[in-house]
Design goal:
Blueprint lengths: L6 H14 L8 H7 L5 H15 L2 H14 L3 H14 L9 H17 L17 H14 L3 H28 L6 H7 L1 H8 L4 H15 L4 H37 L3
């Protein structure tokens, strides 16, 4: 049974994708905090460390999708995610690798606005500021990606759909806490990390559309859709748990600062 041969299955896929956009992860309290950001040195350092550790898994996950797409003779998914992988890796220019841009942008912002020492992305793995919920997020998504092929596609779809919203809010928080770094340098060396994803080209929006296309291509039965739905929902749920925990930690840090602790 193909997706085009089953209007009922097609409707289920469409409805699930629509419902996924209303997942509570998109309205979590940490995102609301970013929307009205008032980072200080402690809370920014906390954000940077957890964001580094969280995001360090991105390129590894995309590479895993490519490898499994090739093994499953899924040429469309391989082609689309190979393009995503190429972009994440700098499109042939190691200096434009998105992980390096992330590291440089966060460290420059931290140095100029909060007087922080730089942190390497790889160092975040062993940093005490990484909370258990962030580690649980990495571990759970790794488990899900190693599950069934359709479960993995659900994970990829969820993460690509989440990225656009997350990065736009992070960019807004960075804009709200800049001021010491000259404006042009901020744009060229800090905001560039966000703009290569959510700038006028709409890269993350395209990535999300590509992931949805890959899902549609692989839904041939209700059981296929069950696997995709499980992977996607579990991914966003564990992501929300992480954001909620980060918000609780930020609130405690700010409360401690108010009491001189």
């Amino acid at each position: 049974m193909t997706l085009t041969a089953s209007s009922g299955l097609d409707t289920r896929v469409t409805e699930f994708m629509t419902d996924l956009e209303d997942h509570p992860v998109f309205t979590n309290d940490y995102f609301k905090f970013l929307e009205h950001c008032a980072w200080n040195a402690r809370t920014y350092e906390f954000h940077r460390t957890n964001f580094f550790f969280r995001t360090e898994g991105t390129i590894k996950g995309i590479a895993a999708v490519c490898a499994r797409a090739a093994a499953n003779d899924d040429a469309d998914t391989l082609t689309l995610f190979a393009q995503i992988l190429n972009e994440e890796a700098g499109s042939g220019d190691p200096g434009q690798c998105h992980e390096l841009l992330m590291e440089s942008a966060h460290n420059l912002h931290g140095a100029y606005e909060f007087g922080l020492e730089p942190l390497r992305v790889k160092q975040s793995r062993d940093d005490a500021l990484v909370i258990k919920e962030t580690r649980a997020y990495r571990e759970r998504t790794r488990e899900l990606v190693n599950g069934s092929y359709n479960q993995m596609l659900g994970v990829a779809m969820a993460l690509e759909g989440h990225a656009d919203h997350m990065l736009k809010l992070c960019r807004k928080a960075f804009r709200a806490t800049t001021g010491t770094l000259p404006a042009q340098r901020y744009l060229d060396e800090v905001e560039i990390y966000f703009n290569v994803h959510v700038g006028d080209a709409g890269v993350e929006e395209r990535h999300a559309a590509d992931a949805r296309r890959c899902v549609r291509n692989n839904v041939r039965s209700d059981s296929d859709m069950d696997e995709i739905a499980y992977g996607a929902t579990e991914t966003l749920t564990v992501q929300k748990t992480m954001w909620d925990a980060m918000y609780e930690h930020v609130c405690k840090m700010n409360a401690g600062a108010a009491h001189g602790k």
